[in-house]
Design a protein that fits this description.
Length: about 210
């Protein structure tokens, strides 16, 4: 099935040169609204998971300790160029969201934009985000989700066979995913294309379900 980490590494390596043309302008407002919801403070340690080419960077405060990771070296290189250009003090490296290379409780803020709908196993990515977040840390998510109130119907599940292969899953439900991973959602706002794209801010409630 075309929903594996190996496939994601290959296709995002191919997408990297054209990613900004597709995803910069289209998501500016959604990114800003998502990141504006974070309670920022100087000196916070911030991790961007699946950071892509760094399109979140313009909306981040500068006085933070910034770390970022992505599966694809081609994305990491573009992130590095953008972060340098914007004057960030940062560290970026190739990293799988399912195995974050950081100790427990290390971060004040974890940003996951347009990655939970892409990963084959979002539960695992959220488990890792939970592990590396401090007890009072904030998880900032922006992505496309199926409404929490009802599971995806057959039409959406059929369309999903195609969207998953080339872009993204459209049947995942943010509420159950986050609560099963041990988060409490503090804000949940529709930010684009009706209720398809949502920005959520969550904090840790307890250990995630295993
Ligand atoms: C849709 S793009 C989003 C990029 C960026 N977060 C943004 O908002 O523009 C998905 C990104 O996730 C990365 N990715 C996919 N699977 C990943 C994984 N398992 N670990 C880390 N990054 C991953 C891809 O390489 C790609 O850069």
């Amino acid at each position: 099935m075309l929903n594996t980490t190996a496939w994601n590494r290959l296709r995002y390596t191919l997408y990297a040169p054209v990613y900004d043309a597709v995803a910069d302008r289209a998501f500016r407002r959604a990114r800003r609204r998502s990141l504006d919801a974070v309670d920022w403070a100087p000196g916070q340690r911030v991790l961007i998971v699946g950071a892509g080419t760094g399109l979140d960077l313009p909306y981040l405060p500068r006085a933070i300790e910034l770390h970022a990771g992505d599966l694809c070296p081609a994305m990491v290189e573009r992130f590095r160029v953008r972060a340098d250009g914007l004057g960030f003090d940062f560290s970026v490296r190739e990293m799988d969201a399912e195995r974050l290379d950081y100790p427990e409780g290390h971060f004040d803020v974890v940003v996951m934009h347009l990655i939970l709908a892409v990963m084959p196993n979002p539960e695992c990515g959220l488990g890792e985000a939970h592990r590396v977040l401090a007890d009072d840390g904030q998880l900032c998510v922006m992505d496309k989700f199926q409404p929490d109130e009802h599971r995806a119907g057959w039409v959406r599940r059929t369309v999903n066979l195609v969207t998953t292969a080339i872009a993204t899953d459209i049947t995942r439900q943010a509420g159950p995913l986050l609560s099963n991973a041990g988060f409490i959602v503090e804000r949940d706002e529709a930010v684009m294309m009706g209720t398809l794209f949502r920005a959520l801010l969550a904090r840790k409630s307890r250990a995630p379900d295993r």
